[in-house]
């Protein structure tokens, strides 16, 4: 659970509760919303499960919210409790002035999108979160609509043509998310090369020894040939 402190949040900064069981996707969203391009518009509080989000919002066992939240950005597929279940719980908390909820998913399924919007989601975004999605988050928070379920059901997802791509695009998006995390954290893959070379030499030596023992045990007079 990566919960940020409540102190130091300036006026006008959007407090976003990020809910995702994937460390990579959480990191991508945090990096994007804290980047210079966002100009300090977001204060991100990250948790790794819908149940922890429920506790943070004071929705579990009559608890009290730890701090005010302007928006919930949640993954759809999570173990134990899904983002869809979290969405319904949040919308049931205060139907007249609900917290805006944006659902994220690596799959662009029309039925899933319709289901989330019908339950009151402000938007549905295909992961990983990208810079072009930031304005959509701002719009959802500023609107804070008070609509009935029937009205919400008629809304259409504001996905752009690039997000409404075929399933392989989700796979490419995941690779892009991993690349973004590696680049931002300054990981130097070259430092692992000596270790990999040593492991390769040890593996080859073990292979040679195994082949030699096998030929000795079989009494073969053939010369050793691993190539």
Automatic annotation (TrEMBL):
Protein name: Response regulatory domain-containing protein
Biased composition annotated in UniProt, kind: Low complexity: 158-169
Sequence segments annotated as region (Disordered): 140-170
SUPFAM superfamilies, sorted: CheY-like (SSF52172)
The organism's taxonomic lineage, starting at the top: Eukaryota, Viridiplantae, Streptophyta, Embryophyta, Tracheophyta
Transmembrane portions of the chain: none
Alphabetic keyword roster: Phosphoprotein, Two-component regulatory system
Modified residues (4-aspartylphosphate): 75
Keyword Phosphoprotein: yes
GO biological process, alphabetically ordered: cytokinin-activated signaling pathway; phosphorelay signal transduction system
Organism in which the protein naturally occurs: Paspalum notatum var. saurae
Domain (Response regulatory) ranges: 15-142
